[in-house]
Amino acid sequence: MKKIHFYSITLLLFMCSSLADAQSFWKERSLNKISIQWSKPILPEGFDVFNTATSRTTISGNFSVGQKVGIAIEVPTAFARIDNDFLFGNVSSEGEFILGNVYLGTEIGNLSNGFFGELGVHLPTNSTGDDFFDGDAAGIGLLSDYAQIQSFTQDVFWIDAKLNYIQSGNGFSFRGRGGLDLGILTENDDFFEQDDSELLLDLGFQAGYDNEKVTVLGGFQTQGILSESDLEFDERFNTLLGLTVSATLNKFRPGLNVKVPVSGPANPSIDAVFGVHLSYLL
Questions:
Q1: Lowest-pLDDT range, 17-21, 60-64, 206-210, 230-234?
Q2: What b/e sequence results for 207-218 when a residue is b if at least 16 CB atoms lie within 10 Å of its CB, and e otherwise?
Q3: How many whole angstroms separate alpha carbon 22 and alpha carbon 162?
């Protein structure tokens, strides 16, 4: 799979077991809305070489077409600016801002209660340059949602297929999700040995309190790469715990989420990811 130069943080090497997801499992879920989500990875001591503004921002929209069909779009971006590099000492870069891979998808079924499916594609629109020192912003984008890294892979066309089950009532809600992601390389790279495609598995579960005013959900997510034969089990799967909280204020729905890796290659490489989100209900 296409790698991204990320000279300032060697911890990104765990992405050799790249993992993926369709829409983020931890985004605020409401039908007919426009949303913005800001996420920042909390890196281990000694690796936090970036300034405060370094982060990932995703603008998305979800729209229902009839009672059982929905359309989804996500536009991910990332910004990275180095203030103190452990290889080169004190530096002050102008920063790098990039567009990630745009997601277009559809949801079909009982979108609020029951089973529904997701089918979508991530277009290879990543704007990272080809220079060796490019790629810091893409690396931050990956680390900010390492369960949705296909948003910032380079020259890979992703096809995502998921099955969801949601049950909500009497203030209690739970959601299960599982599916596969197929990544197809669109451009050869002479520097890295390349496979033509990668097949990934994604599983997740959330449960908690949910009513018209407040939502509090916790759960886990695990993803693994199925198409590599030379990886041990603990190298194939990343598992994380997550918590998301949202509140409804008229047509606005603000909230926050926290994700913490508990096992797999990502576990020693990142402490946590903190995010805030705001949705406008249409």
A1: 17-21
A2: ebebeeeebebe
A3: 8
The answer to whether the beta carbons of residues 153 and 2 sit under 8 Å apart is: yes
Q: Which of 22, 15, 31 is nearest to 177 (CA)?
A: 22
Cα separation, 207 vs 168, whole angstroms: 10
How far CA 205 is from CA of 120, 208, 242, in Å, comes to 20, 11, 10
Residue 200 CA to residue 135 CA, distance in Å, equals 23
pLDDT per residue over 38-62, tens digit each?
Answer: 999 888 776 667 778 889 999 999 9
Cα 17 from chain centre: 15
Stronger pLDDT, 159 or 81, i.e. the higher one: 159
Q: Supply the pLDDT for residue 130.
A: 62
| Residue where the block lists tokens 């990543």 | 126
For 210, the token pair is 């949910």
Helix/strand/coil for 12: helix
CA-CA distances (angstroms) from residue 204 to 59, 81, 122, 160, 282?
23, 33, 20, 15, 28
Three-state DSSP at 149 gives helix
Distance CA 261, CA 263 (A): 6
Residue 150: how many other CB atoms lie within 10 Å: 30
Q: For the chain, give me the number of helices (H) and strands (E)?
A: 2, 15
- How far, rounded to the nearest angstrom, does the alpha carbon of residue 256 sit from its chain's CA centroid? 15
